Amino acid sequence: MTIPSPDTQTIVRRAWQAKTVVPAFNIPYLPMMEPVVRALRDTRSFGLIAVARLEWMKFQSGSLAAVQTEYARVGDARHTRLHLDHVPVIDEDNLRVDYVPVFREALALGYASVMLDGSRLPLDENIAATRRVVDMAHAAGVAVEGELGAVLGHEAGPLPPYEELFASGRGFTDPDEAARFGRGTGVDWLSVAIGNIHGAISGAARGRQKVQARLNLEHLRRIREQTGVPLVLHGGSGIRKSDVQAAIREGIAKINVGTAIRQPYEQSMQDSVARAQEAVYATTTAIIRDELEIAGNAGSLVNGEQ
Ligand code: 13P
Predict the structure, then answer these.
(1) Cα 144 to ligand 1 centroid, rounded to whole Å
(2) Does residue 2 lie within any of the structural domains?
(3) What does pTM read for this prediction?
(4) Could you say which of 8, 46, 209, 217 would form a disulfide bridge with 113 (CB–CB 3.0 to 4.6 Å)?
């Protein structure tokens, strides 16, 4: 599969310069993809269709190839690109991952951008692993996202109370390390930890309402000043809207959204897949229009229209 033009790197850079954002919608169940694409098309906006390793290991997206096959059926180059989200070097269960073959396969399948998550490694090892993936992906014209800092929430077991985490700044991306990481890896985008957390994915916590996270915008500004690349906000579900909007003005050019569309799907999938798909469509449309306020931005991001 050839990657359509413009490439994802160009699109995200345009978003960054225009101070708008590209959402990446996670697909833990394959039937979620069609209503997400439809919501992007109907709102004339642009977004990434994303799958993370844990979504084919612990949910029902099947495999990298299964996601790519569904994308070939329902994707729309005027509104979407295919993105490989979180392939960790050490996963949420603390196990080492043989990540290079995963990237090799994704590149062969035509994924248009990829993420190596080395955030559970010491800084130098994170830099070395990310550099390795950057070398592989850039040779194929594919953009790479790296992560620095701890965006918690995917690990099993309870999190410390959110307010305690936020106040202590534990795991926040260090601005000086971010500068070193950017120089050492050549990544296209950097995922940062500034108060954002992932929705839980294990056990009963999967279905629970996520806490409303806040963002430390002053900290984000310091990271932005030290780095020259578009920044990425993971854990995009349920963050206070005013904080998300301010973060977009401060350099966040991509936001990952998983839990907010997964839970409506899971709540309705016992009734019927069609009903669950309509729940995903309604939620995705509301996120695009009301939370992110990006309806209508596909023309400028994809075609460079002013
Ligand atoms: P949420 O599930 O909290 O939206 O996070 C999604 C995400 O960051 C996937 O990489």
Answers:
(1) 18
(2) no
(3) 0.98
(4) 8
Domain assignment present for 306: no
Question: Which atom of ligand 1 has the smallest separation from the CA of 210?
Answer: 3
CB atoms near residue 104 (< 10 Å): 12
Mean pLDDT of the chain: 96
Name the residue range of residue 173's domain.
8-299
Residue 16 lies in a domain: yes
pLDDT at residue number 2: 73
Active site residue 85: yes
Rounded to an integer, what distance in angstroms lies between the CA atom of residue 153 and that of residue 158? Answer: 9
Residue 70 lies in a domain: yes
Nearest CA to ligand 1 atom 1: 235
Question: What is the per-residue pLDDT across 216-240, written as a single tens digit (0 to 9) for each?
Answer: 999 999 999 999 999 999 999 999 9
Ligand 1 pocket check for 118: Cβ under 6 Å: no
**Ligand 1 contact via 224 beta carbon (within 6 Å):** no
Cα(306) to ligand 1 centroid in Å equals: 31
Helix 273-286 to helix 259-268 angle (10° resolution) is 150
Using a 6 Å cutoff on CB, does residue 234 contact ligand 1?
yes
| Sequence-distant (≥ 6) Cβ neighbours of residue 110 within 8 angstroms | 1, 2, 3, 68, 82
